[in-house]
């Protein structure tokens, strides 16, 4: 029999199949979305608090008795004495029976107990050790169990700035780095697009936090590495089509938001005249760029194809910008790129963690189109690698965490063009489950993430969100119960609503994420201003 906590209230009424009303003692602190056990003789059910109000027996809207007694000092004690919480709840799980609790049933707090047997019964799962224990169900000490088997159905982590997303992602990385499955230490292989350097310490001072199941951890930067914990990121352009590269080079000239299609078509034509294997020599080296520029200025065909000399001049100047930025400044292209299929193989075999540091420190001055080129490159690489592995008979799995997802798969409402990433990420999202890619999309603004990709996420971690995002969150998650939805725009930092396939609870749940100071010290975390002001600045 499942353990129960303290009795804190009583059921007064049952209405529709799953809804009940009851009274709860005012000494017990409650919040919407909190879970309780309901005991009807020997039948236990799990209920979620949907709505509640504090009521007092002196209060009656029709009889203004309260008004008359408020002048008395003792009135407050009196009011307190007779206050109860009127609670509306819905049954979300029944333990071994099919009935709804009758009036008179007891409302019980969740027990303190959280051993394996209890969790197994509570969630109705066989092997608790197959699950990841995440946070604590609100108002209790019971962890939420997450099922790793649904991780390839993709995950979304959303919340406004300061709502606790990065800390949550750090906590998830920590959990997924220290897995113990059938007694064996392991980890989920991961590549992280780290927008603000929030995970960079996992490759340096806090490596021990994520090395329980990993044997390989690396941080990539787009500048000269400052220590041997850093590797310069280089990519291989032969993974792209001439059209992708042409669009990218032309868009770079216009700050990424516009593509002049005439110029792009011309460059596409010129690049297509070359073998794909040559792209790194051609577009990755200053001499190669000069060669292409010469081809454009001296090629008779170009005029015959209808391109004007002003289009040709514009393409030549776009190539100049590409050369200055991508080749000379970022030194981004290499035939032996620092992330390639061999590295993915190492990441898989060693259960590795690759952090692509896109912060101002790791990638100073790198623009969004270039970041998109890199994300697109990694997506293609991942799909190629995992597809080959699958067809040669071996199932692999790599998670791809993308922060600021709206920059790579924007919705039509977001004023940024991302052709180069959108297509490859949509492919990853649709094919991912088959080949073993697990996308973790992190964003402050789910409204600005492509609706189609949003619809392919199947597990959500919702932190406090902006009001404007509520409708996107509701439609992406397939709806949240009203009790949780109405609190979503005012959730406290440290609380998250977890919904979807990975949750062993099967219904959305409010979860508290425990604070660990070591996990909490990272670049993006916000120090308290009052403490910072009194620090000794001469140190
Ligand atoms: N579980 C938690 N418990 C207590 N405090 C927390 C918790 N999570 C986050 N915080 C506090 O809130 C601050 C902001 O959290 P976090 O950096 O995760 O926000 P964010 O949603 O990632 O913001 P941004 O989108 O601006 O990066 C942290 O510095 C920390 O002080």
TrEMBL record:
Which domain of life, per UniProt?
Archaea
- Boundaries of every Helicase HerA central domain copy: 132-381
Q: Which InterPro entries match?
A: HerA-like, HerA_central, P-loop_NTPase
Q: Which GO terms describe its molecular function?
A: 3'-5' DNA helicase activity; 5'-3' DNA helicase activity
Pfam families given in the database record: DUF87
Catalytic activities: ATP + H2O = ADP + phosphate + H(+); Couples ATP hydrolysis with the unwinding of duplex DNA by translocating in the 3'-5' direction
Q: Which family does it belong to?
A: Belongs to the HerA family.
Name by which UniProt lists this protein: Helicase HerA central domain-containing protein
Q: State the organism of origin.
A: Acidianus hospitalis (strain W1)
């Amino acid at each position: 029999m499942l353990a129960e906590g303290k009795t804190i209230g009583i059921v007064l009424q049952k209405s529709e199949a799953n809804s009940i009303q009851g009274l709860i003692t005012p000494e017990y602190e409650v919040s919407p979305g909190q879970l309780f056990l309901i005991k009807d003789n020997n039948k236990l059910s799990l209920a979620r608090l949907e709505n509640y109000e504090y009521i007092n027996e002196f209060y009656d809207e029709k009889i203004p008795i309260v008004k008359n007694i408020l002048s008395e000092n003792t009135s407050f004690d009196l009011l307190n004495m007779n206050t109860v919480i009127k609670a509306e709840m819905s049954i979300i799980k029944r333990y071994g029976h099919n009935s709804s609790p009758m009036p008179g049933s007891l409302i019980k707090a969740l027990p303190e107990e959280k051993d394996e047997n209890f969790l197994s019964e509570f969630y109705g799962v066989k092997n608790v050790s197959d699950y990841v224990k995440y946070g604590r169900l609100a108002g209790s000490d019971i962890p939420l169990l997450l099922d790793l088997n649904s991780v390839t159905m993709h995950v979304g982590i959303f919340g406004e700035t300061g709502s606790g997303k990065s800390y949550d992602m750090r906590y998830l990385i920590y959990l997924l780095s220290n897995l113990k499955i059938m007694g064996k230490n392991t980890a989920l292989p991961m590549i992280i697009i780290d927008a603000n350097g929030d995970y960079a310490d996992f490759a340096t001072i806090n490596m021990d936090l994520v090395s329980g199941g990993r044997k390989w951890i690396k941080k990539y930067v787009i500048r000269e590495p400052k220590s041997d914990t850093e590797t310069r990121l280089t990519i291989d352009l032969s993974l792209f089509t001439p059209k992708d590269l042409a669009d990218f080079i032309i868009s770079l000239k216009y700050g990424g938001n516009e593509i002049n299609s005439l110029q792009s078509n011309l460059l596409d034509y010129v690049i297509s005249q070359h073998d794909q294997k040559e792209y790194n020599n051609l577009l990755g080296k200053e001499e190669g760029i000069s060669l292409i520029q010469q081809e454009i200025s001296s090629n008779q065909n170009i005029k015959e194809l209808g391109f004007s000399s002003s289009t040709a001049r514009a393409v030549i100047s776009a190539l100049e910008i590409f050369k200055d930025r991508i080749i000379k400044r970022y030194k981004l292209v290499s035939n032996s790129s620092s992330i390639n299929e061999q590295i993915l193989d190492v990441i898989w075999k060693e259960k590795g963690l690759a952090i692509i540091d896109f912060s101002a420190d790791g990638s100073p001055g790198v623009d969004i189109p270039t970041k998109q080129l890199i994300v697109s490159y990694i997506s293609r690489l991942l799909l190629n690698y995992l597809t080959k592995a699958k067809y040669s008979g071996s199932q692999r799995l790599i998670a791809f965490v993308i922060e600021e997802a709206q920059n790579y798969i924007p919705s039509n409402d977001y004023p940024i063009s991302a052709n180069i990433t959108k297509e490859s990420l949509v492919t990853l999202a649709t094919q991912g489950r088959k080949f073993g890619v697990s996308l973790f999309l992190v964003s402050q603004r789910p409204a600005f993430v492509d609706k189609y990709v949003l619809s392919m996420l199947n597990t959500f971690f919702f932190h406090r969100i902006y009001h404007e995002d509520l409708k996107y969150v509701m439609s992406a998650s397939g709806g949240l119960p009203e009790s949780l939805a109405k609190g979503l725009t005012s959730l406290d930092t440290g609380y998250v609503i977890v919904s979807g396939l990975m949750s062993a609870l099967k219904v959305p749940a409010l979860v508290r994420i425990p604070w660990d100071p070591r996990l909490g010290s990272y670049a993006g975390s916000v120090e308290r201003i009052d403490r910072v002001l009194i620090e000794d600045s001469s140190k």
